[in-house]
Amino acid sequence: MVINSRELEIQTEIQLFIEEYFKTSNLHIEMKKIVLKLLSLEGKIFNTSNSHFTWSEFYFYVSSLLDKKIPYLKRVGQAAAFELLILSTDLIDDLIDDDFNKETLSYFTKAQAVLLSNALLIESLNLLVKNTKRNPNKILSIINANLINASNGQWDDIYFNVDKPGTSEKLYFQLIQQKSNSLIKLIFELNNYNVEKNSVLKEISMYIGYAGQIRNDVQDVFSNIKSDLKNKKATLPLIKALEYSQQNDNNYLIKQLYVMDENNDNSHSFNELKTYISKTGAIDYCLILSKLYINKAKDLLLKHYPNSSIEIDKIIKLID
To answer: Is the pLDDT assigned to residue 1 strictly greater than 80?
Structure first.
């Protein structure tokens, strides 16, 4: 595989790598077509938006920051592999939450989504091993440890809703530590850093993971695709809105959530609840907190990597 111009944007480089890789991959032709469609959705590497976070670009610049010895094309290959790995986990996440929209379901059935997720996991592991000079067993051990931790968090997340006694902001952040932060840690550790032994990277991964999950949860409140409200998932916006409701409105919010369980056509009620949640100040609280964590991560990056301004600028642009 030859990519001649290194002046191209990294996003384009990763796109080209994936397209070239699929030309020789044994993945089913229909799977390849679906993957490219999925990778064109918001937040993915083939999306045409100029201002969004992608895991593969984040991987590339973190790798450039932490391990400058990796050859350029090997780094691109690892970043592409991570994009496929995240897509694999996203498919399972959407299956669990029943978050597929009509457009996505036009690409495949839910049964096919399971098969596609498995295939992408295998392809991503193969690509990661191929594009590193490190011991493959070590690489697989790192991936296994972090993905198991993320899976454990995802397992607990299935049952983490407002029906659960003792649901709180503290428990919410404990869950993020497993579910979301494990993926950030995985990137650091694939680039030869033991996060548990590096307090700075541990803090950075924690802050980025917190901020990203909070922002996702805020976006999901207003999404017509996501099912967080329907499933009464204990996201931070809902936790804070419930606290307000309990103190000021005689638990109006939780009562309405249960009322909607009994209604078949409740889209209007959901829109009313979204408006109510906004008025409680829960959304503002979450956005401010997310920004606070991003600023903490930025401060640590700038303080501890003063001689890597290019990489730091790129990372900050992605997470900010």
So the answer is: no
